[in-house]
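hey can u check if this looks right to u? its 306 residues, i copy pasted from the old doc so theres a chance i mangled smth
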Amino acid sequence: MAAPRTLVVGSGFVGTRIAGRLASAGETVTLASRTRPAVPPAGGADWTALDATDREACGRLLARLRPDRVVLVHGPSDVTWCEEHPDAAVAAHTAAAENFAARSGGARLVLISTDNVFDGSRAASAEDDPVRPANAYGRAKLSAERTLLGATADAVVLRVSLVYGHEPADAGKWLNFYSACAHRLLRGERVTVPADQWTTPVLVDDVAEVTAAVLRADGPLPPVLHLGGPDRVSRAAWASVIAKTLGAPPDLVVPTARAGTRYASRPENTCLTSRLLDRLPATKDTTVRGVAEGARLLAGTLRNTG
């Protein structure tokens, strides 16, 4: 049997890791984005240039590749940028979802979405809780969700809580929360982080594993699934776990209020729980690790690679 052909749209931190996970398993994977990824995906995935908002370009790429599955991890994903450019954020996310939903040709479509589609008034949100975005990024992702689910039956929205993992200090972008804290702590610098913004962090490798399981699942799936880590932690408490794992002085972590920080537009609770993931045959045996285990796994990589 021929290996499945998968197209991953978006070459950021999450998209590149998903492409690498699938390619390492022997699948034929193409990663598509406006610019070549800074870190090539593992496993030999191919890369091709694509503007996902260009309807004709998406059609040509789908006609050429004829993928069995499509994973949409497209941006913009910087919450602060989206807040400053709300109309552009909604337009970009919606256009990409529409372009692939209209031309998928029966491929399974998975959209990686966000916990920001909720307003944060609950300690954690499940799949059937009412959506109420609290910021422009959440509104953009919700628009993409509705566009995709309204256009095709074989689509799944996988909402993922805050994703973290190793990124080098010189990655040339805003780093994910773990890496941003860890690099500064290892340099002996203070990290000032909110004690009033809560999340359920997910290691990027676990996101890739769950996405792979959803893609290979037999038969129909629920239209919306949630993936949150097992720990509900404030950013300040999480930074303290990182510091302890790295052997950094605990007083380098300085708790603050999220108002007036980069996190001001985030809801108080960006936490997800699932009533479905553990019951589905495809995903029930997938392990999602907590922040302490994730920090231990990443500490060695950080010291070895910087």
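The mean pLDDT is 94.
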